[in-house]
From TrEMBL:
The lineage of its organism: Eukaryota, Metazoa, Chordata, Craniata, Vertebrata. Keywords: Endoplasmic reticulum, Hydrolase, Lipid metabolism, Membrane, Transmembrane, Transmembrane helix. This is Fat storage-inducing transmembrane protein 2. It is a multi-pass membrane protein. It comes from Eleginops maclovinus (Patagonian blennie). One of its GO terms (molecular function) is coenzyme A diphosphatase activity. The chain crosses the membrane at residues 64-87, 94-114, 191-214, 221-239. Its main location: endoplasmic reticulum. It comes from the Eukaryota. HAMAP family: FITM2. GO terms for cellular component: endoplasmic reticulum membrane. It is found in: Endoplasmic reticulum membrane.
Amino acid sequence: MAAVDVIVDNLVTLWRIPSIRQNFHWIFLLISVVGSILKELELVPQTYFSSTRNALNVYFVKVSWGWTLLLLTPFLLLSNSSFNLTVPSQCRRLLSLAVATAVWYIFTETFFYIEDATGSCYETDTVDFVNKEFMSKASCRRAGFRWDGYDISGHSFILAYSALFIVEETAPMASLRTAKLSALNRMVLNLLYVALNLIVIVWVWMFACTSVYFHDPSHKLLGTICGLIGWYLTYRVWYLKPLSPGLPPHRQRKERKQHA
């Protein structure tokens, strides 16, 4: 497991670089804008990732929130217990998972509603004949027709939000590197930390693919902004307050002073 230890140390060092940590969220806006320009100018050739059937999209992005929770939940359970928090404090910290899931659900359901409210059902891809019998995207597509509405990019939203969520919640690893842990707990934490970082890489890569291959520019930009808003209102505003899940353990005191 020595190789894993080296990888973990390098990742921890990377995320402790202030310019990377403090500006990570801007990467998504930059990718969204530049990717949209490249798509509109048709400067990016078609590749394996320009198909929605690529393996990363089918097996990871389509269930991205499931992957995020699957890996992050045991990491939070182990990391929070390693800080010797009281049981109520550990439970409060775990509420960040419920809050993030609520953010994901509210935004995605809002996107679906907007697409239904602004769309129409068309019988052909040329969008020249409206079928008024079907008033929702689901019923329209079940009938084999095409629904055309304002489709805010759910991919841009969830990939940006999930990556930011993971980076925030895995930050305690910097403190846990010097903590006294059992060999088993350290091994599991290390493996989960590496897996979560790999997932962040996948999310950023697929976010870039979404930006250069799919959706209209405004759809992607709005989806990205919604992801950043969900992250900012929780980790930069609400979680600094007493009545909240709170920030990850080792960062609480430092960040509350910075935002006081």
